[in-house]
């Protein structure tokens, strides 16, 4: 039996795979091989690992007469799947000068040809269904890595005193958005709360950490109508926010003191003029006071919220509000609040909320934990999310580098409290 509409699957597969190469295209071979910190990976590694996923979880299981492109790649490009076997140490990925970028691209091309052959081949119905499920997961996984490619290369280029741009604005790859201006002054948008359902609903794709959908009580609350802006965060700095221990969680204050943190990750101040600049994917630019403040840790987000007499939302509150936006805009996975959604007058879309999606991930006060009734999938794929449900916090929404289609009300991103190389920002909440 043939796979359901092989042409559709081949086109979808090729679209995602080609975008990864397009994101790497503006970079030199040297750019693609460097690693700026243990939490980031070289672009070359991202290109290889996403290919490893298809070879290891699909071709190895389903391809007749399977033979790996290179036996060593099974270890070199395994990320964290202990069920697969040995892994190359994550902090040493930048030391892998071999294989070169050309060989990694040859690896991708080889696996793509083999996947196309598998798509078009004869498969029993149960195996065809498994293939469709694994391909969907593999493509969603690769799109997650596309976001990481941009955040990782931004961190890499920021280490260079020449402040090189990833691309010029005019040459930005299709789909690469830039956080837009904050718009109107923030307002408080009230929600009555109540007994609601949280988690993914419908037949579309979701990751296992979005399940099961379950009932949860949400007390009445209010959210700020938009994200905290650069100008607002600058006022926190100028008011001595980083020198006021009473604003900070104990671990956050230790982090500030030991790391010497005094500003967001990519901000710089000219000593002579006092003017602020921000490193972006387009190089160093004057700080835009109206753009959302981003690349902030949970510690910084929480301290700012305390300074404003507010707090961070819980993930249940954030999803409750996003669901209301979805209902009022008629969108199941709301894209209406992506970049450019605000009208010229700066008014909010239905629901009264701006910048819920497509600007920066928004910290919540919720620890990343399994939902009631959560079950991990069997085998190595069960390691995808469940084993990370400790010592992390949930972020909601999406960022300006999140691939199209990955913004949905139930999506649960997660990072440690001190992480800030991702596009992470602040939406305030209060009772």
Furnish the topology, listing elements before pairings.
Blueprint: H1 6-24, H2 29-33, H3 43-62, H4 73-76, H5 101-120, H6 125-158, E1 188-191, E2 194-198, E3 214-218, E4 221-224, H7 230-238, H8 250-259, E5 267-269, E6 276-280, E7 283-286, H9 298-307, H10 315-329, E8 361-367, E9 393-396, E10 413-415, E11 424-425, E12 429-430
Parallel strand pairs: 8-11
Antiparallel strand pairs: 1-4, 2-3, 4-12, 5-6, 6-7, 8-9, 9-10
Please, could you describe this protein's structure?
There is one protein chain. With 431 residues, this protein is α+β, with helices and mostly antiparallel strands. It has 2 domains: 156 residues, Up-down Bundle (Four Helix Bundle (Hemerythrin (Met), subunit A)); 255 residues, paralog of FGE (formylglycine-generating enzyme) (Alpha-Beta Complex), CATH 3.90.1580. 34% of the residues lie in helices and 11% in strands. It is built from 10 helices and 12 strands. Strands 10-9-8-11 form a 4-stranded mixed β-sheet. Helix 1 runs antiparallel to helix 5, helix 1 runs parallel beside helix 6 and helix 3 runs parallel beside helix 5. The N and C termini lie far apart (57 Å). The relative contact order is 0.14. About 5% of the residues have low confidence.
């Amino acid at each position: 039996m043939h796979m359901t509409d092989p042409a559709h699957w081949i086109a979808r597969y090729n679209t995602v795979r080609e975008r990864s190469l397009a994101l790497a295209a503006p970079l030199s071979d040297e750019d693609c091989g460097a690693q700026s910190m243990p939490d980031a990976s070289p672009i070359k590694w991202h290109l290889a690992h996403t290919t490893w996923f298809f070879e290891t979880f699909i071709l190895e299981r389903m391809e007749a007469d399977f033979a790996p492109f290179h036996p060593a790649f099974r270890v070199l490009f395994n990320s964290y799947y202990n069920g697969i076997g040995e892994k190359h140490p994550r902090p040493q990925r930048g030391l892998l000068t071999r294989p070169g970028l050309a060989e990694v691209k040859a690896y991708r091309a080889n696996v793509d040809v083999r996947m196309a052959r598998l798509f078009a081949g004869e498969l029993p119905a149960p195996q065809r269904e498994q293939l469709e499920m694994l391909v969907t997961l593999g493509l969603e996984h690769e799109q997650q890595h596309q976001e990481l490619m941009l955040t990782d290369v931004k961190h890499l280029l920021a280490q260079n005193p020449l402040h090189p741009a990833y691309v010029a604005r005019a040459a930005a790859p299709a789909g690469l958005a830039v956080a837009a201006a904050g718009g109107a002054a923030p307002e408080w948008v009230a929600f009555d709360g109540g007994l609601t359902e949280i988690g993914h609903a419908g037949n579309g794709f979701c990751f296992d950490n979005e399940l099961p959908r379950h009932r949860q009580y949400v007390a009445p609350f209010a959210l700020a109508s938009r994200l905290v802006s650069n100008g607002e965060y600058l006022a926190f700095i100028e008011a001595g926010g980083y020198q006021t221990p009473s604003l900070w969680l104990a671990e956050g204050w230790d982090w500030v003191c030991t790391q010497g943190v005094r500003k967001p990750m990519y901000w710089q101040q000219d000593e002579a003029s006092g003017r602020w600049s921000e490193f972006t994917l387009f190089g160093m630019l004057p700080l835009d006071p109206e753009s959302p403040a981003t690349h902030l840790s949970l510690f910084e987000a929480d301290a700012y919220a305390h300074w404003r007499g507010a707090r961070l939302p819980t993930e249940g509150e954030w999803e409750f509000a996003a669901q209301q936006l979805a209902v009022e805009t008629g969108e199941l996975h709301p894209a209406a609040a992506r970049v450019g959604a605000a009208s010229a007058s700066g008014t909010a879309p239905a629901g009264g909320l701006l910048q819920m999606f497509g600007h920066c991930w928004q910290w919540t006060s919720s620890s990343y934990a399994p939902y009631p009734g959560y079950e991990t999938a069997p085998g190595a794929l069960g390691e995808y999310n469940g084993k990370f449900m400790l010592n992390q916090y949930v972020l909601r929404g999406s960022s300006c580098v999140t691939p199209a289609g990955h913004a949905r009300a139930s999506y649960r991103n997660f990072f440690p409290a001190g992480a800030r190389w991702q596009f992470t920002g602040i939406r305030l909440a209060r009772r």
